[in-house]
Design a protein that fits this description.
The protein is mainly β. The protein has one helix at residues 73-76, and strands at residues 7-10, 20-25, 28-29, 34-36, 39-42, 49-57, 60-68.
Length: 78
């Protein structure tokens, strides 16, 4: 990714009761972006990191992760 790119990450989880979905970046709660159920929008990405979707209900928790790399200026020249 180039800096200042809009990034969309999607996560889906099914269960009864319906699981709540939260997002983390590098293991920390991530709330500085637009989220709707299962979709994370980062309108101006600046930092690489591991983005994790956490789905949780009464019966348990499950995680899925993706690593997003933001390229430096020198990486964008090629």
């Amino acid at each position: 990714m180039d800096p200042e790119t809009v990034v969309y990450l999607y996560c889906s989880a099914y269960g009864l009761p319906h699981p709540a979905i939260i997002w983390e970046r590098d293991g920390q709660s991530y709330t500085s972006a637009e989220t709707t159920y299962g979709k994370l929008v980062i309108p101006n990405i600046q930092k690489s990191g591991k983005y994790t979707c956490v789905a949780e209900n009464y019966f348990g928790r499950i995680r899925a992760s993706a690593y997003v790399t933001v390229r430096s200026e020198s990486q964008r020249k090629f």
